[in-house]
Request: fold
Amino acid sequence: MRAFSCRIGHAKPEPGAYRWCQEALGDRPDRILFVDDREENIRAAEAAGMRGHLFTTPDRLREHLAREDAPQSPR
Reply:
């Protein structure tokens, strides 16, 4: 999915940008991983209920995604 602020009428870190993406994806916010290279955008996504990952390198993102896909052990 692609969301261009000029087309959706909202820009990060406005809450409306994250709501638009959630509605477009059609899923609960806690099931959405928001990836960005700006901390303020990650915080705004997390405030909207999404999970966030601060992008620094492709390898770090791959590691994060692998951890997210790993089965969780029962508590």
About this structure: Residues 5-69 form a domain with the Rossmann fold fold (CATH 3.40.50.1000). The chain is about 50% helix and 10% strand. The longest helix spans residues 58-69. The helical segments are 5-8, 15-25, 39-47, 58-69.
